[in-house]
Amino acid sequence: MSMxxxxxxxxxxxxxxxxxxxxxxxxxxxxxxxxxxxxxxxxGPHFLESMLPKVVKRRVHALKRLQVQCANIEAKFYEEVxxxxxxxxxxxxxxxxxxxDFVTGTVEPTEEECEWHSxxxxxxxxxxxxxxxxxxxxxxxxxxxxxxxxxxxxxFWLTIFRSxxxxxxxxxxxxxxxxxxxxxxxxxxxxPGQPMSFTLEFHFESNGYFNNAVLTxxxxxxxxxxxxxxxxxxxxxxxxxxxxxIDWHKGKDVTVKTIKKKQKHKGRGTVRxxxxxxxNDSFFNFFNPVKASPDEExxxxxxxxxxxxxxIGHFFRERIVPRAVLYFTGEALEDDESFDEEELxxxxxxxxxxxxxxxxxxxxxxxxxxxxxxxxxQ
Length: 378
Description:
single chain; nucleus; Nucleosome assembly protein 1-like 4a
């Protein structure tokens, strides 16, 4: 069995129309009525097909064969999209390298590079005047104390982790001092001819917690229709992920904690204290993911954890890395919240429509609620 996550590139699926069967039966939107006058709806996806004349069913089978061929062509399309992403990633990388240099303070941007027109320019100018006046007052009070300008943009990535709900849920207080040393996050795409995948690289400056300069997380993907379920194909799927071994300094591993337990000898009655290490909540567990085994059934907690891991990996790739500065300032968070509100409003409207339809005495099939990430077992 394996867990899968379909990226946003192909998440939306069309809905089948049950009214076709009603039209064939000549019942319009009223459906089929039993002798008691109650409306019956088709109860399964194969109901319509089973009611077709044999000659029509034969033609439907031909259409299904065409649909499988379409799915195979679509798979090739997504393979080329992956290659296109890899090509353009190389064009983005020099800009991301410069971003890293500005963040870490390795390079100071020029006046021209710092020019930026803001829609809130007047408000910012007014706020700047207030800050200058406050700074003058502070300078008078602290003339004897020299102040050093901060290097680069302090806690750039840590601020993003704190701001994004998906990441802050994993973040623990003992993780924060380590993430202050995070210099950059990069996405690397698999080379041509290799199985489709992408790798997240977390680059750290030298620190007192571990020896690794880079921590990696590989997400393996599949872009081909499943032989047993070809019509379920909706694009590339994350099918597995692989972390890396962190070379922790002695006593600095935040993914475990030491506990002491007292044990009493059954015969002599003496008590001794035993020290043992147990797992500890930490963002750095991200690099030791749950493994999907094709032979063993996973429990629900493991399935949920793995599905969440796939979602986080995709979010890093599609949102965090390309738009890091906007998550640092909070502008991307505002966009995400606006999108969520629009989705919610649409859902409310649909629910209201359902209520109105119920008031009219019509029965509507219950709609499935959208899921944040579409995963399935194989």
